[in-house]
Amino acid sequence: MKRILSTAGILLLLLFLLRYPQEALSASRDGLGLWLNTLIPTLLPFLILTGFLIRTGTADKLTAPARSFWKICIGITPFGAYALILGLLCGYPMGAKITSDMYRHGKIGKREAEYLLTFTNHASPAFISTYLVHICLNDQADRENVYLILFLSAFLTMLFFRFIIFKNHTVEEKNRLKPKMEPSKACSLGTLLDTSIMNGFETIARLGGYILLFSILSALVRHYWKSNAPALCLFLGSLELTTGLHFLSQAALPFGVTYTLAMAMTSFGGLCILAQTKSVLHKELSVVPYICAKCVNAVMTAVIALIFLKIV
């Protein structure tokens, strides 16, 4: 069934490309522009450098001094803390990518990796400040309050999954894990850097492909669903986040509605981010915890945003 649906979707996009080439071209340019001007300069350096730090065993040393804090308060190892910090700073899908790399190299166990997926993949501060607050909300919302709401909802999501879903999870130290891919002792730093660069470019190219396809899919939806209703904005945001936020900003809705929908959409990320996340995960890791967490996170964000609007 999955293959049938995928094939039908690809054929539908091909028909749209042939029938409406100008709209498809415009959507392709928008998608590639986002990839070229935003994703490559912001994510690629981090992909290369974090890959190098993981391969040389340096990543855990940066977070090891707070080992007790990570273990007691969040229930993760220093390696997991590294994925959490970089995921918060770098944005989608960096948290999932680092988590997968840590698991691939035997630094964390499968249980911790799937637990980390529930709260390490978020929109970057730069995206929130520039696209969400400035472009979509037209600077009508305070940046600090937006950050606070998104962080609080992510924290509550982490607590929910830690004490309800992963309540039996225990921190598994590195020396108890069997390495999944141990680099050769004879590998030079130059070789490790070359490997990290090639891995970074492979990942960024894959992400660009997904952005391109979902940009065309969003154009197809907009062609046949000509409306500025909240339902369309929400649907577009569930497909591709930037497209949904763009149309939400032009929908002339009351600020409270725009604010709540924008915050929820940013927390969820959209199916494009889901596809990108799935593409960077190790084949042994399930994407189901991530999907469930994003749905919970989006609902919590909407509820907190509504409460915040009533109070403030």
Task: Note down, in words, how this protein is organized.
The chain is an all-alpha fold. 75% of the residues lie in helices and 0% in strands. It contains 15 helices and no strands. It has helices spanning 2-19, 21-55, 59-63, 67-74, 78-90, 94-104, 110-116, 125-136, 143-165, 189-224, 230-239, 241-249, 255-268, 271-280, 288-311. Helix 1 (2-19) packs across helix 2 (21-55), helix 2 (21-55) packs across helix 6 (94-104) and helix 8 (125-136) packs parallel to helix 12 (241-249). The longest helix has 36 residues, at 189-224. The radius of gyration is 20 Å and the shape is globular. Residues 181-186 have low confidence and may be disordered.
Q: Look at the helices and sheets and give the structural class.
A: mainly alpha
Number of helices: 15
- Tell me roughly what share of residues is in helical segments: over 70%
Mean pLDDT: 86
Q: Output the helix-strand order.
A: HHHHHHHHHHHHHHH
Largest sheet: none
Shape: globular
Q: Tell me the fraction of residues in β-strands, as a range.
A: under 5%
Low-confidence residue ranges: 181-186
Please state the CA-atom Rg, rounded to the nearest Å. Answer: 20 Å
Cα separation of the termini? 48 Å
Number of strands: 0
